[in-house]
Structure formats: structure tokens, C-alpha cells
Design a protein that fits this description.
This protein has 225 residues and is mainly beta. It contains 3 helices and 11 strands, in the order H-H-E-H-E-E-E-E-E-E-E-E-E-E.
Length: 225
Amino acid sequence: MPSIYELVLGDEFRRLHPRIQERFGFSSADRVASIGTGVMERIWYAKVAALPLYWGTKRHIMFPQGGKGVPFTIENFAYLDQFGRETVTWIRKFKFPQAIRRFDATMIYSGERERIVDYLGNKQHLAVDLQISAAPNGGIRIRSGEQRFYEGLLQFRFPAGLTGVADVCEWYDDRAERYRISVEVNNPLLGTVFQYEGSFQARLVDTSPEHIPLDVKPLREEKRE
């Protein structure tokens, strides 16, 4: 079974570095997970965006905290959610001296939208369309698009001025033998509101549906894409 990234990239997937193909090429049928540990060389946020970022800490999205040399982990598990959709977790934990901040997401391939949809947070209340492509350096580039909010009966599309456009690039550094990642979130009105960049090492580990940790899955799964 192809991974959700292979589905959306098609032949372009083969342009990725072999180690990036390894990290993005498994599905629930492979019964493996990618576990990474590393250091964020720099995490930065704009003070003017502190309030919405603080709200994000409640839902495990972004957070108003910065620093240098911040240890972090990333956990990517593939599984079928309760609606039978192929799902990949993105559980990032940033270990600051006085707190551990989480940035959780679950990505699914939407056949209806013909793209990957990224559910942000621990309750899948925010759905984001993703544009995914192979970067010239053999990495994978992910750019966020339209964002939709779901909470009970409440649902709406975010106006462009109220959203943050995320630009993510992950690639493999052959010389350092490490993965590198760069993330920048920009708002049309405020400019750059959140950034981080760092490096990590990752390994594939054997897993199975019954042994996927509960804390990597969202508290609620949203059917609306």
C-alpha cells in the first residue's frame, strides 16, 4: 500500500532523497513508525501573535515560547482512523527548561479533495489543505493552504487575513548524517509569526495497531475534511 505522500506526489516521490523516501514512504500496512530525536537550533515567535499562540498551547498547536538549543522529539505513526482513512501522526515535543510544548497533527489523504489534509491540534478542530512537492535538495516541501474550523455544529473557513501560512521543508544532510527541518509561519497582515529550525536523527521501529501509543492519537477524530 503506498503512503499518503506517495499518493499525492506520484512519480515525483522518486525525486526525494532515499532517506526522505524512507521517512515518508510507509503506510499502516507496513507496521512501522518513524521516531526521531534532535535539537531545535532556534525557535522564535512574534510578540504581537502571543495571544493566539497561547490559545494554541491548549490544543497542542503552536506556542508563544522561543529559545535556542531546544531538545525535541518527533513521532510519526501510520494507522487507519475510525473512518477507515490512512492517517499519519506528527507529534512534536519541544523540551524547554520549564515546560514541554507539543505541536500535534494528523494527516490524511482526502480522495474527495485529492490532496493531503492536515488536522492540527489534539481534537482535529482545524483542517488545513496541504500543497506538497519535492524540493531541489531532495527534501520534501509542505505548504499550507485553505483552513477550516470545526467545533460541534460550528464550521467555517478562515479568512486569509486571520490565518498563518506555514512553509515547511525537511531534507537529509548527507555530510552530517542527519535530517534537517525548517518551518516558517507567515500571516498576510503581521508577517512572520512563528519559526523553528533544527536537525534530528530518526529510525524506523516495528509497531502494530494495538501498540500505537494513545497519546499520539487525537482526543477526537473529525470526519469533515
